[in-house]
Sequence to fold (460 residues):
Amino acid sequence: MPVFPLEELRAMSPRPRIHFIGIGGVHMSAMAELLYTRGFPVTGNDKNESDNVAHLRQVGIHVDIGHQPEYVRGADIIVRNAAIHDDSPDVMEARRLALPIYERPEVLGALMKDSRVRVCVAGTHGKTTTTAMCAGIAVAAETDPTIFCGGKLPETNSAFRFGDSDVFIAEACEYCDSFLSFYPTHSVILNVEEDHLDYFKDIHQIRDSFRRFADLVPADGGVTAAFGDDGSIREFLQGVKKKIVYFGFHAENDYIAANLTEELGYYSFDVVYDGEILCHIRLAVPGRHAVIDAMAAFTISVAYGVDPEVAARALENFHGAKRRFEKVGTFKGIQVVDDFAHHPGELKTTLDAAKRMGYKRVICLFQPHTYTRTEALYKDFARELSAADVTILAPIYPAREENIHNISSALIGNEMESCLLPASMEEAEEWIRREAREGDLILTVGAGDIFKVAYSLIKD
Fold:
């Protein structure tokens, strides 16, 4: 993979101008601002005006709207959002001018190298919540961290935080092997399941990618914290000659969540290490999966030097990241929760938590995300969605894909005993408005724009 030459660029005088194509994205805008604050001339362009674009202009970064070829002229280096296609006029012009082009992970990896402690959180699901938990712990420990997260952080109401210390915390996505461009000193592996099958061939290739990720930490002082209850994770990590610390519920782990108690879906537990209870934690976010996420954040934070009691109290004060079992409001007195789950494993944990919370019915409006994921995992989706009392399958959110195989949500629905298959989001919302009743829980679930239904409902 190309390496973004940050140190070489710093040494140049004058410093080269870095131009971001697709600068309005959450992480793209944050990286642009971070480079700008570190003394680089930065410009960019994006398809639309947005709050991020307005903020960048406010801090002094010039942003053009559209994808005209002239926008990249005069730049020395291009940073490209992967969502921008090769035939975009600005990308084509950058190639014609033979400008070096980098993508987001390569730049983020270079930026984190400035920090002594670099925590990277990976896994098929749970990354954002665990990254946000790590962020909360680091802030509570007064380390003043820099943070790049996949969802909005409670501390900043944004997906990033600029700190002035040697601690850098980043969510690490496996798609297209992006996380292999990072430089972790401390890494987390939460779980490894089949996903992103438009890029990976099979689960074996996915596991190999995560093994390579674990191998990125330095031999001297580096640590990977991994979920030790999963035998497949232990198996593929056997060949890694770096320090592995396991967390989980089982007694063979290094850090153990023990003496669990549960009340309406919320868990309390002791953290046991080397036979001794280090601390007790009462979580304010629901679900057994939240215990796993908290144990991951606790384990890796203690590994880089945070006091266990500080970590425990920060976890107790954690109330969730944006779109992660987020209680957004009520519709005629009925609780509405929005969640980002878009993989069968995530659906399972979300619905397990919902079913334990004492509601009469769980109404799940699910929007499948991408045709390839739906086609590959439709039976798994159907199995997990059957846990809801009412399942409504919205049309698939295509994201980056074309529907070349004529896939629809009915592929999932046909595997279920009962579900609703509305023709549109509007039709789905109309059903909820008409049929939801007191004592229900309304869940809007998916990685696309399903959240719009939740926010429409709570306006009433």
User: Anything to note?
Assistant: The CA atoms of residues 368 and 374 lie 7 Å apart. The longest strand covers residues 255-263.
